[in-house]
Amino acid sequence: MTKAKFLVITLFIGIVLFLIPNISNATVDVSRNIYSNNGSMKFNFSGLTLNTSHEYEFGLTKTKAASIETWHLITEYTETTAVVDVMTTTKDLREVINAVDNGFITIKDKNTNTIALESISVDLKTPFLNLTNYTVIPNGKQFGSLSSDETIQIALRNAENSNAYYQYEKITDNSVINKYKELKANSGNYSELQSLLKQTVPTSNWNAWDYWNGHDSITGMDGFGYTQRNISVPDNGLYYMWVYFSGKNIKNVYGYILVDNLQPEIVLDSISLPKTKEVELGKTLTLTPTFNPENTTNKIVTWTSSDESVATVSNAGLVTAKKIGSTIITVTSQDGNKKATCTVTVTEATTNNSNEEKNTTDTPKTETSTTSTATKNDTTVSSTKLPKTGVGFGLAITSVIILGIAIFTYLKCREFKGI
Fold it and tell me: Can you say how many angstroms the Cα of residue 257 is from the centroid of all Cα atoms in its chain?
């Protein structure tokens, strides 16, 4: 065998050995379910190749390179799937969750003592809304001083391994508020809000909890207390009550409970507009709807023009004349149940006025609200699909370059057989 052939074969074997661990994970999918407010979670793996007559174990580590000291039996699995139950009541698993937001799970065939799934990254961060035993509390909620339903409970923290802080932040996103009202009206699951809620943690203005207890130094668990004995937000509305625990030799933890201080809904009976209005060509007119009752809770409306070639209308009710003619301007309540119309006639511009444009404004009787929406990135939902692992783009490109160099070397060596 020539030196060139030996070189090509050696490079090829090296590439294959380098890729095997990554290829084995390339088709594996992982989803997560937070099933307890003590931080315990289940990871569902699919795309595996398992023997149902064998037993399988898993290990959880803080880093990919760390060795696994304790293996845990997997009780739910098929030929292609496995459910890994990471319970915080188990010391070595809890220690990993308390240290890092992302850990690594490895699956081993217990019968053959071989690895069935190379270490794969998993999300260990508890979603903000699932950190405590509460998701929503009413403003004015009174707490006691016992480790029971009279306190806020934090499973993975206590007064010996952390300090507890809180602060309030008013929610101004209408999409969150409206979804919350919908869930409240239908006795829904408030965890559905998590993907809409804020993910940016406050960096200052933290206050110490009025009462913070729990001294289980052995497990480092079962903290309890209250931010305020009587919960009191500054104003009407829906609030985040952020909670923060500074860790001692463990990671810091953040979360929130929603505080409901929304006022009772006042139902809209009707909307009205002037029957007719005129506006000169090239000028604008502001239409302001009248709500009945005037203090109705939801004043969000939409606007449309039946003929936008004659006049257009903005979300604030601003009518802009385009050409001489008539169009019907319609205002509609957010739920679509209440409407009002105004026939707007565009007339020729008068010639005895100055060149300055004048705006005709209907006298406002109440403020107009416009629809606003907001889009948020949820990185901490309870049941999500984690990114696939496997051969990345950079890895594939590197492999192609190496193989190309090997082939080039081989061809050149054939030209110079003296090598």
Answer: 15
